[in-house]
Amino acid sequence: MIKMEFSALDFDCFFIDKKFTVSHLASAGVRPFDSIIRNWESYDTIISYFKDLPIISHEVMVNCDLNKYVQLMEEQSLANYLGSFKYFAERGLYSFDKTILNDVMDTQFHLVAYPSVSIDFTAFPDIIKSVLLDSTFDGDVKEWINVDVKLIS
């Protein structure tokens, strides 16, 4: 069993919903999904795989209610904030951020950016599919603005 302190770490986590829509979230210190801990030896492979994906479309959407969750004063601050979320959305993933940053016990995340074209789960290598099948959200991400990571198995 791996024993680690996660509260100071920001993990990129990936999961699927019941329709196999692939999503990314930045953990912001929240303990990673149990599936990440169970598959810890594959974590670097998973991260590399998703970071190396080609762009599917430059057309991404930003959550129109983002200002309810994030207050950024300057245009450049917003561009910097959106950078990694848009990066994953350009590759076909829905991308979420932690809603309350200073509370590691809070498990609510909000949608930041989402793709115009979703990535095809069936095209993934078996190791990626296996880990994602172990990280499933029992809902439809396309219908949610917020996700509670406690609901991801």
What ranges have pLDDT less than 50 throughout 5 or more consecutive residues? 1-8
Write down the overall mean pLDDT.
79
The largest β sheet comes out as: 7 strands, mixed
Beta-sheet strand percentage?
A: 15-25%
Q: How many structurally independent domains? A: 1
Classify the helix fraction into a percent range: 10-25%
| SSE run | EEHHEHEEHEE
- Molecular shape: globular
What does this structure look like?
With about 150 residues, the protein is of the alpha/beta class. It has one domain (about 10-150). The protein has 4 helices and 7 strands; from the N terminus they run ββααβαββαββ. The chain has helices at about 35-40, 45-50, 75-90, 125-135, and strands at about 10-15, 20-25, 60, 95-100, 110-115, 135, 145-150. Strands 1, 2, 3, 4, 5, 6 and 7 form a 7-stranded mixed β-sheet that branches. A hairpin with a 4-residue loop joins strand 1 and strand 2. The longest helix has 16 residues, at about 75-90. The radius of gyration is 15 Å and the shape is globular. The relative contact order is 0.25. The model is unreliable at about 1-10 (pLDDT under 50).
Task: Give the topology.
Layout (H helix, E strand, L loop, with lengths): L11 E6 L4 E5 L7 H5 L4 H9 L8 E3 L12 H16 L3 E5 L9 E8 L10 H8 L2 E2 L8 E3 L5
Parallel strand pairs: 1-6, 2-4
Antiparallel strand pairs: 1-2, 3-5, 4-5, 5-7
Short description:
By secondary structure, this protein is α/β, with parallel strands linked by helices.
